[in-house]
Amino acid sequence: MKKISLLGATGSIGWQTYDILCSHSDEFKLVAFSAGKNIEKTKEIINRLKPELVSVQDEVDAKTLQNEFPHTHFTYGTKGLIEVATHPDSTVLVNAVLGSVGLESTLAAIRMSKTIAIANKETLVTAGHLVMAEAKKYNAPILPVDSEHSAIFQAMNGENPKQVERIILTASGGSFRDKTREELKNVTVKDALNHPNWSMGAKITIDSATMMNKGLEVIEANVLFGLPFEKIDVLLHRESIIHSLVEYHDTSVIAQLGTPDMRVPIQYALSYPDRLPLVEGKRLNLAEIGQLHFKEVDFDRYRALKLAYDAGRAGGTVLTAMNAANEAAVALFLQEKITFLQIDEMIEQIMNDHNNILLPDLETILHVDIETRKTVESMVK
Ligand code: MG
């Protein structure tokens, strides 16, 4: 029985993790989880899986819940995230929080040599060098939950990483893939949230539309697999059936395929190295699909992807600045305070103005993160 701590239980990935934990209750035991402000979903998880420790965003919610569930221990805020991540009984941490808020708690869990199933790509983007160095030092396995990285991880199973020629991350192109940049001028929040293949949270759906999501994934791949950026390619593949590919020295290409369902990579990270049946999983029928499509990425059209490659190649605090600028700009777009195209314009301006510091420590990263968000906020005033 694997004992699990889960950060971000009521978000899209967290909720699908909860679904897997329910369907394989003989394999997994949830001991601690964090949630934000969704108290109804929080109560549902407590009633069903009876964890020992729960953290919510606000103190007032923690107090109310404590009265209702006297046998569960409640905590809140940033310290609550760390308590959940470092719960002494758990051996696996699933980090499914949104944005760079997951960083400190992930580092704390790594220092306890827990296995980290990481869905929180922002943590790897802003502090990849710290996370991987600590993971090595404390012998904490980092397992990808992102579908592309899970695909690469699976396609590299038993292979010698030194014999990899390149990896190819597939990209659906997001909700505006058939539009030119000119046609993006007046798109609305509602249009942007309408992703063709994947059901995901709002932030990542916008990131898919700008392709910053793929940019973050390119950096995530560089961190997780230790490959230089010239060996990481992106390929447009509108059906999202091939989740990514690995090409080897001998020209062989190994890919992982399947019906788009985030529960597959989440469950694989939990069950690794075993595979469990996927409850109500839809099997891939290639004959029914008939055709798959592929196309080269246009970096002028998807400017955010180019910015991410630039930041990745530069390394240092510009990665944090880029990520924080993106998080702040996406939040402003969702509040209808800026237009869709202003998202990458703002990121580009932040990156151009940034004084880069290479190999930053945690304090510097957190400082750049906060300052960048403030600067982006002030840009709309
Ligand atoms: Mg992905």
Automatic annotation (TrEMBL):
Start and end residues of each 1-deoxy-D-xylulose 5-phosphate reductoisomerase C-terminal domain: 142-225
Reaction(s) the record says it catalyses: 2-C-methyl-D-erythritol 4-phosphate + NADP(+) = 1-deoxy-D-xylulose 5-phosphate + NADPH + H(+)
Pathway(s) the chain acts in: Isoprenoid biosynthesis; isopentenyl diphosphate biosynthesis via DXP pathway; isopentenyl diphosphate from 1-deoxy-D-xylulose 5-phosphate: step 1/6
Top-tier EC class: oxidoreductase
One GO biological process term: isopentenyl diphosphate biosynthetic process, methylerythritol 4-phosphate pathway involved in terpenoid biosynthetic process
Recorded GO MF terms: 1-deoxy-D-xylulose-5-phosphate reductoisomerase activity; isomerase activity; manganese ion binding; NADPH binding
UniProt: NADPH binding residues: 10-13, 36-38, 120, 122, 201
InterPro entries listed in its UniProt record: DXP_reductoisomerase (IPR003821), DXP_reductoisomerase_C (IPR013644), DXP_reductoisomerase_N (IPR013512), DXPR_C (IPR026877), DXPR_C_sf (IPR036169), NAD(P)-bd_dom_sf (IPR036291)
Domain spans labelled DXP reductoisomerase C-terminal: 257-374
Cofactors: Mg(2+); Mn(2+)
Residues involved in Mn(2+) binding: 146, 148, 217
Alphabetic keyword roster: Isomerase, Isoprene biosynthesis, Magnesium, Manganese, Metal-binding, NADP, Oxidoreductase
Enzyme Commission number: 1.1.1.267
Binding annotation for 1-deoxy-D-xylulose 5-phosphate: 121, 147-148, 172, 195, 208, 213-214, 217
PANTHER family, alphabetized: 1-DEOXY-D-XYLULOSE 5-PHOSPHATE REDUCTOISOMERASE, 1-DEOXY-D-XYLULOSE 5-PHOSPHATE REDUCTOISOMERASE, CHLOROPLASTIC
NCBIfam families, per database record: Dxr, PRK12464.1
Role noted for this protein: Catalyzes the NADPH-dependent rearrangement and reduction of 1-deoxy-D-xylulose-5-phosphate (DXP) to 2-C-methyl-D-erythritol 4-phosphate (MEP).
UniProt similarity note: Belongs to the DXR family.
UniProt name for this protein: 1-deoxy-D-xylulose 5-phosphate reductoisomerase
Native source organism of the sequence: Ureibacillus xyleni
Gene name of the encoded protein: dxr
